[in-house]
Design goal:
Blueprint (H helix, E strand, L loop, with lengths): L3 H8 L5 H13 L1 H19 L5 H9 L5 H15 L1
C-alpha cells in the first residue's frame, strides 16, 4: 500500500504516470487501499479549507485536484460539513 505522502502527491498530480498507475492498481485491487486514499483525500480537503496548504501544494490543489467537477463537489461537501 502506498504511504500517505505518496497518495497526497498522487491527488495533487505530483506523481509520475507510472506511480499514478501503481496507486490506481492498488486501490482497485484492495478495498483498504481505496479507503486509505479516501482518508488522505479528506485530510487534503480539510487542509485546504483550513488554509494549511500553501505554495506549490495549494497551487497543485487548485489547478490539478479541482479541475474535475467531482472533486469540486467533494470540496463543496467538505466545506458544508465544516460550517454545520
Amino acid at each position: 500500500m502506498p504511504d500517505e505522502a505518496v497518495i497526497r502527491q498522487y491527488l495533487l498530480g505530483e506523481t509520475s504516470e507510472d506511480e499514478a498507475q501503481a496507486i490506481e492498481r492498488a486501490y482497485f485491487a484492495k478495498e483498504e487501499t481505496l479507503d486509505e486514499v479516501g482518508a488522505v483525500e479528506w485530510d487534503l480537503l480539510e487542509d485546504y479549507l483550513a488554509g494549511r496548504l500553501t505554495g506549490p501544494s495549494r497551487t497543485a490543489f487548485e489547478t490539478h485536484y479541482l479541475r474535475t467537477p467531482e472533486h469540486r463537489r467533494r470540496l463543496a461537501v467538505a466545506r458544508a460539513l465544516r460550517t454545520e
